[in-house]
Amino acid sequence: MMKWRTAVAVILALSLLLAACGGSGGEPTDTVATEPSAPTQPSSGAPQSEPTAAQPAAGTPQVETAPAEPFDVAAHLSAKTMELWDVYNTYDPEALKAFYSEAYWAEKAEEVESNMEPFKLFGITIAGEETSPPTEVEPGKWEVRHDASFPLGSLKMVFIYEEFDGEWLLTYAEDQ
Q1: Do the Cβ atoms of 173 and 155 come closer than 8 Å?
Q2: What is the pLDDT of residue 152?
Q3: What is the reported pTM?
């Protein structure tokens, strides 16, 4: 099981790195050209230096990357949910809080801590396994389904993530 998790984590990390770099040389990229910015003169009157990679030549069109593709969100949420299980297995509710929206944590904190106590008491860990890829169920809401197994049984979990200030947080997490 650990080898599978490691392989998935490596694949996801490489996918995210490739996406961040704009893909390989042979793949088309989704870019949008914008208006060139007007050249600026230094206030000191000193001559301008040669353009660098961080400072394109005047009149050079600027290129910005298109918004993240749904596959990128799915890969991120898949990895994030596996990380959630790792954090749950530390029995630290404060660390787990980072996965929840503020309002949802306020509603569920006591229940989560209460549910965590027997696992902590007996040193039981949960192994999560994705049962279907993350799916956008409505604009801005993604569902992730996992089987959660532990020595005394198992659960089928449904997680709903929503984006808050660029961070995907839980707004729903229940067993089915």
Answers
A1: no
A2: 87
A3: 0.61
